[in-house]
Each structure stands twice: as structure tokens, then as C-alpha cells.
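Section 5.1 Outputs to date
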Amino acid sequence: MLVLGAAALAGAGWLVYQAIQSGSTFLGTVIAAFATVVAVLVARYFEGQRDAQLVRREHLTSIYEDLIVRFTNAESASDGPDAVDAIRLFHRKVLLWGHADVVKSFVAWRNTLPEDPDEIDERTPAENMPMFLAAESFIRSLRKDMGISNRGLEEGDLLRVWVNDFDDHYRLYKAAKSA
């Protein structure tokens, strides 16, 4: 595509040069033709970008949805071999198709998880808040990767959707953090 564009530009430049040299009124026609070629090339480039984005999102949509189901139904869906298989599938897909923000936010969230999953239950909700906030950041990156805007969402807004008493725990977390 780039080579075709460069060839068209060089050809148009040569035609303009020839038209100027000959004093022809053909110059207006050449400029119009050149503008048309450039417009078509630019449109095709953006169509290709859009098509590539659609294919990428097609590969990731079901994986992202499955992860969100596991996040929001932690009690019923996060244990067992199905959860492990879902995470493994996510790993494979995100390595090929995932945006850099998704990869980074996933790693940041995973780094907040304790080595022993039972430790989560032993902590207070306020002590688990960094893990929840990292999960929210990960979900925001998934949304962004799918073309959904996060504009207007503040920290905790997505967590409030499925954590009923989020604000109580968030206040305790903020108070402990500022003390």
C-alpha cells in the first residue's frame, strides 16, 4: 500500500511538472486526479485498520466476557478446572491479540493476588482493596480494548456494580491509607 502511494505521488508529481513545463491547462485535471487517488488510498488504509481491529476484537470478545463472568461471580465461577482453563485460554489469546494495556493491567492485578488464595478470606475487605482496584483497572483496560469508553467513570464505579458494600470498605481503605 505504501509503495503504491509513493508511486502515485511520484507519478502525479511528474505529471504536474510536465504540465507546468508545457503551460497546459491540463494542470487542474492532474491535481484533481491526484487528490482522488490520495483520497482512495487513505480510505483503504483506514478500512484495513478497521477490519484488523474487528478481527482482533472477534478473537477476544468471548474470552473477555468469560473473565468478567468469573470476576463478578467469584463465589460460584472462580474455582475448579473450568476457571484454570479460562485463564489459560486468556493467556494464549492475549499474547497474540491483546493490547499492551490489557497485558500490563492483567500482570499488575495478578501481582496483587496472594500466593495462597485462602489468604484473601483471612484479610479484611479494606486490606483486599488494592487487589479489587487492580481488578477494576484490568476491567477498564478490557473495556477500552473493546472500544468502550471509560470516560466519566471514577475509581470504584465498576466495582460498585457487583460489590454491594464497596463504599464502606473503600472509605476504610482510604482512611487507613492516609493515616
